[in-house]
What does this fold into?
Amino acid sequence: MREARGSKRRGREVRHSARRVAGVWLPVVLVVALLAAGVGAYRFEWGQRYLPGLAADPVTEPEEVLPPAGLDLPAWSTPTPAALPAGSAAAFAPDAVARALRKPLADPDLGRHVVAAVTPLEPGGEVWTSGDGTYLPASTTKLLTVGAALAALGPDHTFTTRVVRGDGPREVVLVGGGDPLLASKPLTVAERGATYPERADVATLAVDVAEALGGRGRVVVRFDDSLFSGPTDNPAWRRDYVPDDIVSPITALMVDSGIAPDGQERSDDPSLAAARAFAAGLTAAGLRVTGAPERVVVPTATEELASVESAPLSQVAERVLDVSDNEGTEVLGHHVGLAVSGTGSFEAGAAGVASTLQGLGIDTSGDQLYDGSGLSRRNRISTGTVLALLQAASGPDPDLRSLVTGLPVAGFTGSLTWRFDDGPALARGLVRAKTGTLTGVHALAGIAVDRDGTPLAFVVAADRVADADRYDAQDALDRAAAALAACRCGAPTAG
It folds into this structure.
Protein backbone atom coordinates (compact mmCIF):
# COMPACT_ATOMS: atom_id res chain seq x y z
CA MET A 1 0.00 0.00 0.00
CA ARG A 2 1.29 3.41 -0.86
CA GLU A 3 1.71 5.63 2.12
CA ALA A 4 1.12 9.37 2.26
CA ARG A 5 -1.37 9.48 -0.61
CA GLY A 6 -5.11 10.10 -0.90
CA SER A 7 -7.40 7.44 0.45
CA LYS A 8 -10.53 5.97 -1.13
CA ARG A 9 -12.74 7.28 1.65
CA ARG A 10 -14.01 10.79 0.92
CA GLY A 11 -10.60 12.25 0.15
CA ARG A 12 -9.13 11.53 3.59
CA GLU A 13 -5.43 12.02 4.14
CA VAL A 14 -3.20 8.95 4.22
CA ARG A 15 0.14 10.69 3.95
CA HIS A 16 0.85 12.59 5.47
CA SER A 17 9.09 28.69 24.19
CA ALA A 18 9.04 30.96 20.86
CA ARG A 19 11.02 31.65 24.00
CA ARG A 20 10.32 29.90 27.29
CA VAL A 21 7.48 31.93 28.78
CA ALA A 22 8.16 32.68 32.41
CA GLY A 23 5.37 32.16 34.89
CA VAL A 24 1.74 31.53 34.08
CA TRP A 25 0.56 33.38 30.99
CA LEU A 26 -1.86 33.25 28.13
CA PRO A 27 -3.38 36.29 26.40
CA VAL A 28 -7.14 36.39 26.44
CA VAL A 29 -6.75 37.48 22.84
CA LEU A 30 -5.66 33.96 21.97
CA VAL A 31 -8.79 32.45 23.46
CA VAL A 32 -10.97 34.95 21.65
CA ALA A 33 -9.07 34.34 18.39
CA LEU A 34 -9.47 30.60 18.63
CA LEU A 35 -13.20 30.83 19.35
CA ALA A 36 -13.67 33.36 16.59
CA ALA A 37 -11.72 31.11 14.24
CA GLY A 38 -14.05 28.23 15.00
CA VAL A 39 -17.19 30.26 14.48
CA GLY A 40 -15.73 31.80 11.33
CA ALA A 41 -14.89 28.40 9.93
CA TYR A 42 -18.37 27.15 10.67
CA ARG A 43 -20.24 30.07 9.17
CA PHE A 44 -18.04 31.03 6.25
CA GLU A 45 -15.92 27.95 5.57
CA TRP A 46 -12.80 30.15 5.79
CA GLY A 47 -13.74 32.22 2.78
CA GLN A 48 -12.22 35.24 4.51
CA ARG A 49 -8.84 33.57 4.71
CA TYR A 50 -8.64 32.67 1.04
CA LEU A 51 -10.63 35.67 -0.22
CA PRO A 52 -9.57 38.38 2.23
CA GLY A 53 -11.17 41.10 0.16
CA LEU A 54 -14.59 39.77 1.16
CA ALA A 55 -14.06 40.17 4.90
CA ALA A 56 -13.98 43.22 7.15
CA ASP A 57 -11.31 43.52 9.83
CA PRO A 58 -13.22 42.84 13.08
CA VAL A 59 -11.00 45.32 14.94
CA THR A 60 -10.82 48.26 12.58
CA GLU A 61 -13.81 47.69 10.29
CA PRO A 62 -16.79 46.29 12.23
CA GLU A 63 -19.72 45.43 10.02
CA GLU A 64 -22.29 48.17 9.59
CA VAL A 65 -25.49 46.73 11.04
CA LEU A 66 -28.22 49.30 11.53
CA PRO A 67 -29.78 49.32 15.03
CA PRO A 68 -33.56 49.14 15.49
CA ALA A 69 -35.37 52.46 15.22
CA GLY A 70 -35.02 54.59 18.34
CA LEU A 71 -31.98 52.74 19.71
CA ASP A 72 -28.73 54.66 20.08
CA LEU A 73 -25.53 52.60 20.30
CA PRO A 74 -22.17 53.86 21.64
CA ALA A 75 -19.38 54.51 19.15
CA TRP A 76 -17.06 51.62 18.32
CA SER A 77 -13.80 51.44 20.25
CA THR A 78 -10.98 48.91 19.98
CA PRO A 79 -11.25 46.39 22.84
CA THR A 80 -8.39 46.07 25.31
CA PRO A 81 -7.41 42.48 26.26
CA ALA A 82 -8.14 41.78 29.89
CA ALA A 83 -5.74 40.06 32.25
CA LEU A 84 -6.41 36.47 33.20
CA PRO A 85 -7.47 35.83 36.79
CA ALA A 86 -4.65 34.95 39.14
CA GLY A 87 -4.04 31.22 39.31
CA SER A 88 -5.95 30.47 36.09
CA ALA A 89 -3.27 28.06 34.89
CA ALA A 90 -4.24 25.78 37.78
CA ALA A 91 -7.86 25.59 36.61
CA PHE A 92 -7.18 22.43 34.66
CA ALA A 93 -8.85 19.18 35.67
CA PRO A 94 -6.84 16.11 34.61
CA ASP A 95 -9.54 13.85 36.05
CA ALA A 96 -12.09 15.44 33.70
CA VAL A 97 -9.74 14.85 30.76
CA ALA A 98 -9.31 11.23 31.81
CA ARG A 99 -13.07 10.71 31.91
CA ALA A 100 -13.56 12.41 28.55
CA LEU A 101 -10.90 10.34 26.78
CA ARG A 102 -11.34 6.99 28.50
CA LYS A 103 -13.83 5.54 26.03
CA PRO A 104 -12.39 6.77 22.68
CA LEU A 105 -8.82 5.82 23.63
CA ALA A 106 -9.97 2.35 24.69
CA ASP A 107 -11.32 1.62 21.21
CA PRO A 108 -9.73 -1.70 20.14
CA ASP A 109 -9.35 -0.41 16.57
CA LEU A 110 -6.48 1.77 17.82
CA GLY A 111 -4.30 -1.27 18.35
CA ARG A 112 -1.73 -2.09 21.00
CA HIS A 113 0.17 1.20 21.29
CA VAL A 114 -1.83 4.36 22.04
CA VAL A 115 -0.47 7.57 23.53
CA ALA A 116 -2.20 10.79 24.53
CA ALA A 117 -1.30 14.00 26.34
CA VAL A 118 -3.34 17.11 27.17
CA THR A 119 -2.39 20.34 28.92
CA PRO A 120 -3.62 23.94 29.09
CA LEU A 121 -2.28 26.03 26.26
CA GLU A 122 -0.51 28.40 28.63
CA PRO A 123 2.78 27.04 29.99
CA GLY A 124 3.10 25.92 33.60
CA GLY A 125 -0.06 23.88 33.96
CA GLU A 126 -0.48 20.20 34.70
CA VAL A 127 -0.14 17.64 31.94
CA TRP A 128 -2.46 14.64 31.66
CA THR A 129 -0.82 11.70 29.90
CA SER A 130 -1.71 8.20 28.83
CA GLY A 131 0.73 5.62 27.46
CA ASP A 132 4.51 5.84 27.36
CA GLY A 133 4.59 9.29 25.74
CA THR A 134 6.69 8.40 22.67
CA TYR A 135 5.23 7.61 19.26
CA LEU A 136 5.90 7.31 15.54
CA PRO A 137 4.71 10.78 14.53
CA ALA A 138 4.04 10.49 10.77
CA SER A 139 3.03 13.94 9.49
CA THR A 140 2.79 15.50 12.94
CA THR A 141 6.57 15.73 12.43
CA LYS A 142 5.76 18.69 10.19
CA LEU A 143 4.90 20.73 13.29
CA LEU A 144 8.49 20.44 14.48
CA THR A 145 9.97 21.24 11.07
CA VAL A 146 7.75 24.27 10.47
CA GLY A 147 8.26 25.56 14.02
CA ALA A 148 12.04 25.31 13.65
CA ALA A 149 11.94 27.02 10.23
CA LEU A 150 9.93 29.94 11.62
CA ALA A 151 12.33 30.26 14.55
CA ALA A 152 15.54 29.93 12.52
CA LEU A 153 14.55 32.05 9.50
CA GLY A 154 11.80 34.35 10.80
CA PRO A 155 8.20 34.59 9.57
CA ASP A 156 9.00 37.36 7.05
CA HIS A 157 11.73 35.38 5.30
CA THR A 158 11.26 34.86 1.56
CA PHE A 159 12.94 32.53 -0.92
CA THR A 160 14.49 33.99 -4.06
CA THR A 161 14.75 32.28 -7.44
CA ARG A 162 17.28 34.08 -9.64
CA VAL A 163 18.54 34.12 -13.19
CA VAL A 164 22.15 35.20 -13.69
CA ARG A 165 24.48 35.53 -16.67
CA GLY A 166 26.41 32.41 -17.62
CA ASP A 167 29.86 32.07 -19.13
CA GLY A 168 28.76 33.20 -22.59
CA PRO A 169 27.01 36.46 -23.56
CA ARG A 170 23.77 34.67 -24.39
CA GLU A 171 23.93 32.04 -21.64
CA VAL A 172 21.55 32.35 -18.70
CA VAL A 173 21.52 30.31 -15.50
CA LEU A 174 18.41 29.58 -13.44
CA VAL A 175 19.52 29.46 -9.79
CA GLY A 176 17.35 27.63 -7.28
CA GLY A 177 16.76 29.31 -3.94
CA GLY A 178 14.72 26.54 -2.36
CA ASP A 179 11.27 28.11 -2.86
CA PRO A 180 8.89 25.45 -1.50
CA LEU A 181 5.95 26.69 -3.61
CA LEU A 182 7.68 27.75 -6.84
CA ALA A 183 5.35 27.20 -9.81
CA SER A 184 5.91 26.51 -13.49
CA LYS A 185 3.45 29.16 -14.65
CA PRO A 186 1.39 32.01 -13.18
CA LEU A 187 -2.03 31.41 -11.72
CA THR A 188 -5.08 32.19 -13.79
CA VAL A 189 -7.47 34.89 -12.61
CA ALA A 190 -9.82 32.23 -11.26
CA GLU A 191 -6.99 30.36 -9.53
CA ARG A 192 -5.73 33.56 -7.90
CA GLY A 193 -9.02 34.00 -6.11
CA ALA A 194 -8.87 30.54 -4.56
CA THR A 195 -5.13 30.00 -3.98
CA TYR A 196 -3.26 30.87 -0.83
CA PRO A 197 -0.57 32.07 -0.68
CA GLU A 198 0.56 33.65 -3.94
CA ARG A 199 3.21 31.77 -5.90
CA ALA A 200 6.35 32.89 -7.67
CA ASP A 201 6.73 31.18 -11.07
CA VAL A 202 9.44 30.60 -13.66
CA ALA A 203 7.25 31.72 -16.60
CA THR A 204 7.02 35.24 -15.17
CA LEU A 205 10.74 35.08 -14.43
CA ALA A 206 11.36 34.14 -18.08
CA VAL A 207 9.45 37.21 -19.30
CA ASP A 208 11.61 39.45 -17.10
CA VAL A 209 14.78 37.78 -18.40
CA ALA A 210 13.66 38.16 -22.01
CA GLU A 211 13.09 41.86 -21.39
CA ALA A 212 16.56 42.19 -19.84
CA LEU A 213 18.05 40.55 -22.96
CA GLY A 214 16.24 42.80 -25.42
CA GLY A 215 13.28 40.58 -26.19
CA ARG A 216 14.75 38.49 -29.00
CA GLY A 217 17.73 36.46 -30.11
CA ARG A 218 19.33 33.16 -29.19
CA VAL A 219 19.82 31.99 -25.63
CA VAL A 220 21.34 28.96 -23.89
CA VAL A 221 19.82 27.77 -20.60
CA ARG A 222 21.74 26.35 -17.66
CA PHE A 223 20.57 25.69 -14.10
CA ASP A 224 22.17 25.65 -10.64
CA ASP A 225 20.57 23.69 -7.80
CA SER A 226 23.67 23.50 -5.62
CA LEU A 227 22.06 25.23 -2.61
CA PHE A 228 21.09 21.81 -1.23
CA SER A 229 23.53 18.93 -0.85
CA GLY A 230 23.34 15.26 -0.04
CA PRO A 231 20.95 12.69 -1.53
CA THR A 232 17.66 13.80 -3.04
CA ASP A 233 16.01 10.57 -1.81
CA ASN A 234 16.10 10.16 1.97
CA PRO A 235 17.83 6.88 2.98
CA ALA A 236 15.40 6.67 5.93
CA TRP A 237 12.37 6.50 3.63
CA ARG A 238 10.87 3.34 2.21
CA ARG A 239 12.72 2.45 -0.96
CA ASP A 240 9.64 2.73 -3.18
CA TYR A 241 8.64 6.28 -2.13
CA VAL A 242 10.56 8.14 -4.85
CA PRO A 243 10.50 5.47 -7.60
CA ASP A 244 6.76 4.98 -7.18
CA ASP A 245 6.00 8.73 -7.26
CA ILE A 246 4.81 8.90 -3.67
CA VAL A 247 7.16 11.83 -3.02
CA SER A 248 9.44 13.83 -5.32
CA PRO A 249 13.21 13.93 -5.03
CA ILE A 250 14.05 16.99 -2.94
CA THR A 251 16.12 19.71 -4.65
CA ALA A 252 16.62 23.45 -4.31
CA LEU A 253 14.97 24.05 -7.69
CA MET A 254 11.51 22.49 -7.94
CA VAL A 255 8.37 23.69 -9.68
CA ASP A 256 4.91 22.39 -8.80
CA SER A 257 6.44 20.22 -6.03
CA GLY A 258 8.15 18.14 -8.70
CA ILE A 259 4.81 16.96 -10.08
CA ALA A 260 4.52 16.58 -13.84
CA PRO A 261 1.99 18.69 -15.82
CA ASP A 262 -0.35 15.68 -16.03
CA GLY A 263 -0.71 15.86 -12.25
CA GLN A 264 0.07 12.16 -11.86
CA GLU A 265 3.77 11.40 -12.23
CA ARG A 266 6.67 13.07 -10.45
CA SER A 267 9.90 14.07 -12.11
CA ASP A 268 13.03 12.00 -11.52
CA ASP A 269 15.00 15.25 -11.73
CA PRO A 270 12.84 18.19 -10.51
CA SER A 271 15.63 20.71 -11.13
CA LEU A 272 15.90 19.74 -14.79
CA ALA A 273 12.11 19.85 -15.11
CA ALA A 274 12.13 23.37 -13.66
CA ALA A 275 14.82 24.45 -16.12
CA ARG A 276 12.78 23.06 -19.00
CA ALA A 277 9.70 24.97 -17.83
CA PHE A 278 11.84 28.12 -17.64
CA ALA A 279 13.18 27.49 -21.15
CA ALA A 280 9.63 27.10 -22.44
CA GLY A 281 8.82 30.45 -20.84
CA LEU A 282 11.74 32.08 -22.65
CA THR A 283 10.49 30.66 -25.96
CA ALA A 284 6.99 31.99 -25.27
CA ALA A 285 8.56 35.39 -24.52
CA GLY A 286 10.17 35.54 -27.99
CA LEU A 287 13.66 34.16 -27.43
CA ARG A 288 15.14 31.23 -29.34
CA VAL A 289 16.41 28.61 -26.90
CA THR A 290 19.16 26.38 -28.30
CA GLY A 291 20.30 23.09 -26.85
CA ALA A 292 19.06 21.38 -23.69
CA PRO A 293 19.42 22.81 -20.17
CA GLU A 294 22.51 21.62 -18.31
CA ARG A 295 23.44 21.65 -14.62
CA VAL A 296 26.23 24.06 -13.56
CA VAL A 297 27.44 25.86 -10.44
CA VAL A 298 27.81 29.62 -10.72
CA PRO A 299 29.92 31.96 -8.56
CA THR A 300 28.01 33.89 -5.88
CA ALA A 301 28.74 37.33 -7.32
CA THR A 302 27.50 36.57 -10.86
CA GLU A 303 25.45 39.38 -12.47
CA GLU A 304 21.73 38.95 -11.87
CA LEU A 305 19.30 39.46 -14.75
CA ALA A 306 16.02 38.95 -12.90
CA SER A 307 14.51 37.30 -9.84
CA VAL A 308 11.20 36.36 -8.24
CA GLU A 309 10.33 36.17 -4.53
CA SER A 310 8.19 33.65 -2.72
CA ALA A 311 5.43 34.52 -0.31
CA PRO A 312 6.71 35.14 3.24
CA LEU A 313 7.52 32.04 5.28
CA SER A 314 4.58 32.69 7.60
CA GLN A 315 2.20 32.07 4.68
CA VAL A 316 4.22 29.18 3.27
CA ALA A 317 4.11 27.57 6.72
CA GLU A 318 0.32 27.83 6.84
CA ARG A 319 0.03 26.21 3.43
CA VAL A 320 2.31 23.23 4.05
CA LEU A 321 0.61 22.48 7.37
CA ASP A 322 -2.90 22.90 5.99
CA VAL A 323 -2.48 20.38 3.17
CA SER A 324 0.35 18.31 4.74
CA ASP A 325 2.76 19.12 1.91
CA ASN A 326 5.61 16.58 2.07
CA GLU A 327 7.90 18.21 -0.49
CA GLY A 328 7.36 21.71 0.87
CA THR A 329 8.15 20.64 4.42
CA GLU A 330 11.29 18.79 3.35
CA VAL A 331 12.51 21.91 1.56
CA LEU A 332 11.91 23.91 4.76
CA GLY A 333 13.86 21.28 6.70
CA HIS A 334 16.81 21.71 4.36
CA HIS A 335 16.65 25.46 4.96
CA VAL A 336 16.81 24.86 8.71
CA GLY A 337 19.95 22.82 8.11
CA LEU A 338 21.44 25.69 6.10
CA ALA A 339 20.59 28.22 8.79
CA VAL A 340 22.01 26.12 11.62
CA SER A 341 25.04 24.40 10.08
CA GLY A 342 25.45 25.76 6.56
CA THR A 343 24.39 22.44 5.01
CA GLY A 344 21.07 21.87 3.28
CA SER A 345 20.40 18.14 3.53
CA PHE A 346 18.05 15.67 5.17
CA GLU A 347 20.53 14.87 7.93
CA ALA A 348 21.51 18.48 8.61
CA GLY A 349 17.87 19.53 8.50
CA ALA A 350 16.76 16.97 11.07
CA ALA A 351 19.63 17.88 13.38
CA GLY A 352 18.92 21.58 12.89
CA VAL A 353 15.24 21.15 13.75
CA ALA A 354 16.09 19.40 17.02
CA SER A 355 18.74 21.94 18.04
CA THR A 356 16.57 24.94 17.09
CA LEU A 357 13.66 23.71 19.19
CA GLN A 358 16.07 22.92 22.03
CA GLY A 359 17.18 26.57 21.82
CA LEU A 360 13.57 27.61 22.36
CA GLY A 361 13.55 25.73 25.65
CA ILE A 362 11.76 22.69 24.23
CA ASP A 363 13.29 19.41 25.35
CA THR A 364 14.00 17.29 22.25
CA SER A 365 16.68 15.12 23.84
CA GLY A 366 14.65 11.93 23.55
CA ASP A 367 13.41 12.55 20.00
CA GLN A 368 14.72 10.82 16.89
CA LEU A 369 14.28 12.70 13.61
CA TYR A 370 15.32 11.51 10.16
CA ASP A 371 13.33 13.82 7.92
CA GLY A 372 11.13 16.90 7.95
CA SER A 373 7.86 15.54 6.59
CA GLY A 374 7.32 12.48 8.78
CA LEU A 375 7.50 9.92 5.98
CA SER A 376 10.29 8.11 7.77
CA ARG A 377 9.15 5.26 9.98
CA ARG A 378 12.32 5.67 12.05
CA ASN A 379 11.11 8.95 13.56
CA ARG A 380 10.13 8.94 17.22
CA ILE A 381 9.04 12.02 19.17
CA SER A 382 7.57 12.62 22.59
CA THR A 383 4.15 14.05 23.21
CA GLY A 384 5.88 16.55 25.52
CA THR A 385 7.84 18.01 22.61
CA VAL A 386 4.66 18.65 20.64
CA LEU A 387 2.78 20.16 23.58
CA ALA A 388 5.67 22.51 24.41
CA LEU A 389 5.89 23.62 20.78
CA LEU A 390 2.16 24.35 20.61
CA GLN A 391 2.44 26.39 23.81
CA ALA A 392 5.41 28.33 22.45
CA ALA A 393 3.61 29.07 19.19
CA SER A 394 0.63 30.39 21.15
CA GLY A 395 2.73 32.71 23.33
CA PRO A 396 3.48 36.41 23.07
CA ASP A 397 6.30 36.18 20.51
CA PRO A 398 4.67 36.29 17.05
CA ASP A 399 7.44 34.47 15.18
CA LEU A 400 5.88 31.03 15.60
CA ARG A 401 2.25 32.10 15.30
CA SER A 402 1.78 30.58 11.83
CA LEU A 403 2.19 27.17 13.42
CA VAL A 404 -1.19 27.72 15.10
CA THR A 405 -2.96 29.63 12.32
CA GLY A 406 -1.90 26.99 9.80
CA LEU A 407 -3.47 24.09 11.68
CA PRO A 408 -6.38 22.54 9.75
CA VAL A 409 -9.83 23.17 11.24
CA ALA A 410 -11.88 20.08 12.08
CA GLY A 411 -14.47 19.42 9.40
CA PHE A 412 -13.61 22.49 7.33
CA THR A 413 -10.06 22.96 6.02
CA GLY A 414 -7.00 21.18 4.75
CA SER A 415 -6.30 17.62 5.79
CA LEU A 416 -9.25 17.73 8.23
CA THR A 417 -11.81 18.74 5.61
CA TRP A 418 -13.26 15.23 5.41
CA ARG A 419 -12.61 14.32 9.04
CA PHE A 420 -15.06 14.78 11.91
CA ASP A 421 -17.87 14.34 9.39
CA ASP A 422 -19.31 11.28 11.12
CA GLY A 423 -18.33 12.24 14.67
CA PRO A 424 -19.68 14.74 17.21
CA ALA A 425 -20.60 17.95 15.44
CA LEU A 426 -19.50 19.97 18.47
CA ALA A 427 -15.84 19.59 17.53
CA ARG A 428 -16.23 21.18 14.11
CA GLY A 429 -14.49 24.52 14.21
CA LEU A 430 -13.34 24.03 17.82
CA VAL A 431 -10.52 21.60 17.10
CA ARG A 432 -7.50 22.63 15.05
CA ALA A 433 -4.96 19.87 14.52
CA LYS A 434 -2.22 18.48 12.35
CA THR A 435 -2.92 15.00 11.08
CA GLY A 436 -0.39 12.21 10.89
CA THR A 437 -1.03 9.14 8.76
CA LEU A 438 1.13 6.28 7.53
CA THR A 439 0.25 2.63 7.14
CA GLY A 440 -0.61 1.53 10.68
CA VAL A 441 -0.09 5.02 12.11
CA HIS A 442 -2.71 7.64 12.94
CA ALA A 443 -2.20 10.81 14.98
CA LEU A 444 -3.72 14.20 15.74
CA ALA A 445 -1.88 17.05 17.44
CA GLY A 446 -3.20 20.55 17.98
CA ILE A 447 -5.59 22.70 19.99
CA ALA A 448 -9.11 22.07 21.23
CA VAL A 449 -11.30 24.67 22.90
CA ASP A 450 -13.42 23.08 25.61
CA ARG A 451 -16.98 24.01 26.63
CA ASP A 452 -15.73 26.64 29.10
CA GLY A 453 -13.62 28.33 26.40
CA THR A 454 -10.34 26.92 27.72
CA PRO A 455 -7.84 26.18 24.93
CA LEU A 456 -6.06 22.86 25.42
CA ALA A 457 -2.97 21.57 23.64
CA PHE A 458 -3.28 17.88 22.88
CA VAL A 459 -1.72 14.88 21.16
CA VAL A 460 -3.51 11.57 20.49
CA ALA A 461 -1.80 8.85 18.48
CA ALA A 462 -1.82 5.14 17.70
CA ASP A 463 1.06 3.62 15.73
CA ARG A 464 0.24 -0.10 15.64
CA VAL A 465 -3.11 -0.06 13.88
CA ALA A 466 -4.19 -2.99 11.71
CA ASP A 467 -4.66 -1.89 8.11
CA ALA A 468 -8.23 -3.19 8.12
CA ASP A 469 -9.01 -0.88 11.05
CA ARG A 470 -7.47 2.29 9.63
CA TYR A 471 -10.69 4.24 9.08
CA ASP A 472 -12.18 3.18 12.39
CA ALA A 473 -8.94 4.20 14.11
CA GLN A 474 -9.15 7.65 12.53
CA ASP A 475 -12.72 7.95 13.73
CA ALA A 476 -11.67 6.97 17.26
CA LEU A 477 -9.03 9.72 17.34
CA ASP A 478 -11.58 12.19 15.97
CA ARG A 479 -13.91 11.23 18.79
CA ALA A 480 -11.10 11.75 21.29
CA ALA A 481 -10.44 15.27 20.03
CA ALA A 482 -14.18 15.96 19.94
CA ALA A 483 -14.45 14.77 23.54
CA LEU A 484 -12.01 17.50 24.56
CA ALA A 485 -14.19 20.09 22.84
CA ALA A 486 -17.21 18.72 24.73
CA CYS A 487 -15.35 18.51 28.05
CA ARG A 488 -15.44 20.97 30.91
CA CYS A 489 -11.72 20.41 31.45
CA GLY A 490 -10.79 23.95 32.39
CA ALA A 491 -12.22 23.90 35.91
CA PRO A 492 -11.63 21.59 38.88
CA THR A 493 -14.22 18.89 39.36
CA ALA A 494 -15.52 17.34 42.55
CA GLY A 495 -14.46 13.90 43.66
